[in-house]
Amino acid sequence: MTALWTIDEICRATDGRAVGLDADAAINGISIDSRTISENDLFVAIKGDRFDGHDFVAKALEQGAGAALVSDAFADAHPDLSRLIVVDDALLGLERLGVAARQRMQGKVIAVTGSVGKTSTKEAIRITLQQFGKTHFSIKSFNNHWGVPLMLARMPADTEFAVFELGMSHADEIRPLVNMVSPHMAVITRIAPAHLENFKDLYGIADAKAEIFEGLLPGGHVFLGADHDYVAYLKGRAAGLGHENVTTYGFAEMADMHLSAPVLADGQIGCDFEFDAENGQLLVPQLGAHALPNAASAYLIGRALELDADALLAAIQHYVAPPGRGEIITLELEEGTATLVDESYNANPTSMLAALDTLSRNQHQGRTCVILGDMLELGAQAPDLHRSLAEPLKQLAPEQCYFVGPMMAHLFEDVRDDLVVEWLENRDTLLPKLANWLAPGDLVMVKGSNGIGLGALVQACREKWPPTKE
């Protein structure tokens, strides 16, 4: 197996010095978590909000790490330790290693951001491109100031396609990330009220997302989701930086790749599309219509890479929802099965409405239960934005609702006279309540911001009603 890096390559990339290491020794992986160290990994001792990785260097080395990237101060304080690469600052060292990985890679790089659908769109693109060549991609939501350089540093030199997710909660956060990634193509999925408490208005969010254009390589290609009110504004921001090659996609009539009304059948969502002289059908093994613009972005990127249209449409049919973002889970009850739609990873008003729309399209034999948690980081508008879900929820008319968190109390007050609903301060008592209610054929959707912890409820459901092993 070809080494990801050698010690000498890491030292040259990070301006580091090796202590007790062979310059030709191979490093096969990179980790910032001592609990996930594999043999011959490089452990990077970054300092986070809660932990300082330097406190776990000895443990990482004991567990088989080939080397540890550490700060000068730590090395000076631990002269007895060896197998170290010493730099001025471990996080800066990781950033330099990520930049070096990008510089040596000769394939095509795609960067994705947006208020909603970043991870799902990244997944659509990477699942599609994996059918055509060696593809590297951001895992989970590693999209911040340490996640992006970590994902870059893990990128093999012979990567053909790379897809990186760039996140932000404040202005000026995407700029340094995209400058490290240096993409050939940039995707903005949508502008929506996410992290609104940190911005004056949605134009501020659009400006922050538009920072992705600043690192786009000259001659690069911009792809914009068209189903929001800030498309023209983003086009203008791109043009102001010299990026005229812009393609839009979505259900909006003005989209360059226009999607027809979605149709749900046999557990798959589909639509027809028109793009220049091309037309065809997108078909995705998911329930939500919001998966179709994600798939459209993957198709457009593939065509920009001159990949075959029919092969792309076939590859897109492998695009399943990632955990926490629409994953469909079968719960094995004593006398049959129920279905859980896991949307527990994130929530804002736009994604909440999309999730409720998904339920309205779904045909199933039993009842519907909606479990909603607070939407976080919405600032002073949070109470009103939670209340804005009342009418769509009344129209859906689920047989049972559970609301979790202090902000959901506002929604509870607006629907309590029209729906069967219970408000809970936290998730602790939810599982037994759901167990008493649930019956074969029922459909349950769980959605809320990750900080509310509804992912733990989903995991508890998996453990209580696991799929039958054949």
Written description of the protein model:
This protein has helices spanning about 5-15, 55-60, 70-75, 90-105, 120-130, 145-155, 175-180, 200-210, 230-240, 290-305, 310-315, 350-360, 380-385, 390-395, 410-415, 430-435, 455-465, and strands spanning about 5, 15-20, 25, 30, 40-45, 65-70, 85, 110-115, 135, 160-165, 185-190, 220-225, 245-250, 255-260, 265, 270-275, 280-285, 325-335, 335-345, 370-375, 400-405, 420-425, 445. Strands 8, 9, 10, 11, 12, 13, 14, 15, 16 and 17 form a ten-stranded mixed β-sheet that branches. A six-stranded mixed β-sheet has the order 18-19-23-20-21-22, sandwiched between helices. It has three domains: about 5-90, MurE/MurF, N-terminal domain (Udp-n-acetylmuramoylalanyl-d-glutamate--2,6- Diaminopimelate Ligase, Chain: A, domain 1); about 105-315, 3-Layer(aba) Sandwich (UDP-N-acetylmuramoyl-L-alanine:D-glutamate ligase), CATH 3.40.1190; about 325-465, Mur ligase, C-terminal domain (Protein-Tyrosine Phosphatase, Chain A). The protein is globular. Strand 16 and strand 17 form a beta hairpin. It is α/β, with parallel strands linked by helices.
